[in-house]
C-alpha cells in the first residue's frame, strides 16, 4: 500500500542520514613528528608607526631569525570607522561567548559545513584625515620549528648579530613613540579549519603607559581532523595573557 512505501522511504532516508553523519571521537596521542614545521598566521595592529617596530621569532634551535619568513607591514590609523568598529565588536563578542560560556556547541562547530568562526576583517577604507597614519598593521605567516620559542613585536627594527641572534635598534625613538596598545584581528597556528575556536581573535588591549609590555603564553596541541567532509592536520592552542 501507499503507507507501506512511505514508511520504507522514510526508513531508507533515515539510514542514509545516519550513515552520512559524523560521530565525534577524541583521542589523545603524543606528537612524534619533531622535525616538522608549524605555520603561524597573524593579522594584528600595533598603535605605533611601522618604522618604529620590528617583528620576528627566536627559538631553541638558534636558527637565523630572518629564515622564518617576513611579515607584511601596512601603515594604518588606530581609530576605526563606525562600520569597522561594529564588525570588530560583533566578532569579539561572538568569540568570547563561544570560548567562555557555551562550550556545548563543539559538536555543531566541528560537523558543520557552513559555520566559520574566523571571518576576515574587511578591507579598511581610506581615512579622511590628512595626517600620517599612527599605527601599523602586521600580517602574514611564519614557518616555525616544533620547539619552544617566542614570537615578539618590539620597538626598533631588528638587525642580525654575529655569530647568532639579532638586536632591535630603538636609539632614535622618543618616549612618546612607544605605545604597545594592540588589536588582534586574527591569530592561528596551522591550516585554518572549521570548528576550531581562535581565542585571540577580536582581542583589543589599550594602555596609557608608554613602556607597558604584554605577554601571551601558549600551549599548542596538534590536531587531526577526520570527518566525512574534512581530512586535515592542524593545531589548536590555549593562551594566558600577562
TrEMBL record:
Mind listing the UniProt keywords for this protein, alphabetically?
Membrane, Signal, Transmembrane, Transmembrane helix
Please give the InterPro entries that the UniProt record associates with this protein.
Erv, Erv_C, Erv_N
The GO annotation for biological process reads: endoplasmic reticulum to Golgi vesicle-mediated transport; retrograde vesicle-mediated transport, Golgi to endoplasmic reticulum
Q: What Pfam families does this protein's entry cite?
A: COPIIcoated_ERV, ERGIC_N
Identify the residues that the record assigns to the Endoplasmic reticulum vesicle transporter N-terminal domain, covering every copy.
1-64
Any idea where the Endoplasmic reticulum vesicle transporter C-terminal domain is? Answer: 127-241
The entry's family comment says: Belongs to the ERGIC family.
Q: What is this protein called?
A: Endoplasmic reticulum-Golgi intermediate compartment protein 2
Amino acid at each position: 500500500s501507499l503507507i507501506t512505501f512511505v514508511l520504507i522511504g522514510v526508513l531508507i532516508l533515515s539510514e542514509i542520514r545516519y550513515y552520512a553523519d559524523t560521530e565525534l571521537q577524541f583521542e589523545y596521542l603524543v606528537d612524534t613528528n619533531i622535525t616538522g614545521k608549524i605555520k603561524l598566521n597573524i593579522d594584528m595592529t600595533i598603535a605605533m608607526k611601522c618604522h618604529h617596530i620590528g617583528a620576528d621569532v627566536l627559538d631553541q634551535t638558534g636558527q637565523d631569525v630572518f629564515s622564518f619568513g617576513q611579515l607584511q607591514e601596512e601603515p594604518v590609523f588606530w581609530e576605526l570607522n563606525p562600520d569597522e568598529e561594529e564588525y570588530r565588536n560583533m566578532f569579539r563578542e561572538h568569540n568570547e561567548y563561544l570560548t567562555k560560556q557555551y562550550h556545548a556547541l563543539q559538536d555543531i562547530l566541528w560537523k558543520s559545513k557552513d559555520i566559520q568562526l574566523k571571518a576576515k576583517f574587511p578591507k579598511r577604507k581610506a581615512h579622511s584625515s590628512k595626517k600620517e597614519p599612527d599605527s601599523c598593521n602586521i600580517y602574514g605567516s611564519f614557518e616555525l620549528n616544533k620547539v619552544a620559542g617566542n614570537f615578539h613585536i618590539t620597538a626598533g627594527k631588528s638587525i642580525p648579530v654575529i655569530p647568532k641572534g639579532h638586536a632591535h635598534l630603538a636609539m632614535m625613538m622618543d618616549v612618546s613613540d612607544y605605545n604597545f596598545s594592540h588589536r588582534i584581528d586574527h591569530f592561528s597556528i596551522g591550516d585554518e579549519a572549521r570548528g576550531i575556536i581562535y581565542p585571540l581573535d577580536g582581542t583589543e588591549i589599550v594602555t596609557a603607559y608608554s613602556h607597558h609590555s604584554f605577554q601571551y603564553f601558549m600551549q599548542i596541541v596538534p590536531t587531526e581532523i577526520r570527518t566525512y567532509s574534512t581530512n586535515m592536520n592542524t593545531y589548536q592552542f590555549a593562551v594566558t595573557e600577562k
